[in-house]
């Protein structure tokens, strides 16, 4: 039996609803014969506009619903599936609502923000299909705090191991311990750190082990530290892109809500 996921939830129930809504809206638009050019001010325009506005409000409610863990009104996976398919259907409903009449006004602004929000939603979906699972796997099902604690333990052990070694080894280990996950947001965005002190420590100790046998334990210690750092770097690199998406998608959603309110009010006041 195929397990339910975001796309095939309950045998694609929300895909079917979205396709039905899209087909009905498209056929209504094709067979409607308004006295003027098709636009949001015809009976069909008002109907599609009402449906679109209700969809927008419902889709925004998802942001509240997904944080209500005790809420029993439906499976969260089902809500996400509906959010995806009905959000895509909204792009068709909103476009037909405009009658393809776009201009420099608050009505078109609401449409542009609708499409931008849907677009960033698709962008975010591609992240959520890949990144959360990879973020979990890269940490080996540990939390970032647990790996940080491992690094702290390794640093304490390294101090003991380097106590009787040369001043150069001590300096290399001290510099390594100062090396954090990322020095800045730019490095986090790229997922790479130039001149990593821990990498340099590993390279130096690997070379020096040929002359000094006692450095093998310190070398192993630094290899483990570097491995832990790389785990955290990959995790926070992926997290950066998820947070970046949210910082774009969420403000766009609220901007859309404000434009929608202005759009509706202007219609009732001036039309």
If you compute it from the alpha carbons, what radius of gyration comes out, rounded to the nearest whole angstrom?
Answer: 28 Å
Number of E-state strands:
0
Q: Can you count the helices?
A: 9
Weakly predicted, low-confidence segments: 68-73
* Global outline: elongated
Largest sheet: none
How much beta, percentage-wise?
under 5%
Q: Give me the secondary-structure category.
A: mainly alpha
Helix content bin: over 70%
Q: How far apart are the first and last residues' alpha carbons, in Å?
A: 55 Å
Structurally, the number of domains stands at 2
Your description of this structure?
This protein is mostly helical and 271 residues long. Helices cover 76% and strands 0% of the residues. Helix 8 packs antiparallel against helix 9 (216-270). Residues 68-73 have low confidence and may be disordered.
Features:
single chain; 271 residues; mainly alpha; 2 domains; 76% helix; elongated
């Amino acid at each position: 039996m195929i397990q339910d996921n975001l796309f095939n939830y309950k045998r694609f129930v929300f895909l079917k609803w979205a396709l039905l809504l899209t087909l009905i809206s498209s056929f209504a638009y094709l067979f409607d014969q308004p006295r003027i050019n098709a636009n949001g001010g015809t009976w069909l325009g008002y109907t599609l506009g009402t449906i679109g506005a209700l969809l927008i409000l419902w889709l925004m409610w998802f942001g509240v619903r997904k944080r209500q863990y005790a809420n029993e009104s439906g499976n969260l996976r089902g809500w996400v599936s509906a959010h995806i398919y009905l959000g895509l259907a909204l792009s068709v409903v909103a476009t037909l609502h405009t009658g393809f009449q776009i201009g420099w006004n608050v009505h078109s602004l609401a449409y542009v923000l609708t499409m931008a929000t849907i677009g960033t939603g698709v962008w975010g979906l591609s992240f959520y299909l890949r990144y959360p699972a990879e973020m979990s796997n890269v940490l080996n099902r540990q939390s970032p705090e647990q790996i940080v604690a491992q690094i702290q333990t390794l640093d304490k052990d390294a101090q003991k191991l380097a106590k009787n070694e040369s001043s150069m080894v001590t300096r290399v280990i001290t510099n390594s311990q100062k090396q954090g996950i990322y020095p800045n947001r730019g490095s986090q965005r790229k997922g790479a750190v130039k001149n990593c002190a821990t990498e340099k420590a590993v390279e130096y100790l690997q070379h020096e082990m040929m002359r000094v046998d006692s450095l093998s334990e310190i070398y192993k210690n630094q290899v483990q530290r570097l491995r832990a750092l790389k785990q955290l770097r990959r995790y926070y690199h992926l997290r950066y892109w998820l947070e970046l998406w949210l910082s774009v998608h969420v403000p766009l959603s609220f901007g859309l809500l404000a434009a929608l309110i202005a759009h509706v009010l202007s219609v009732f006041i001036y039309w």
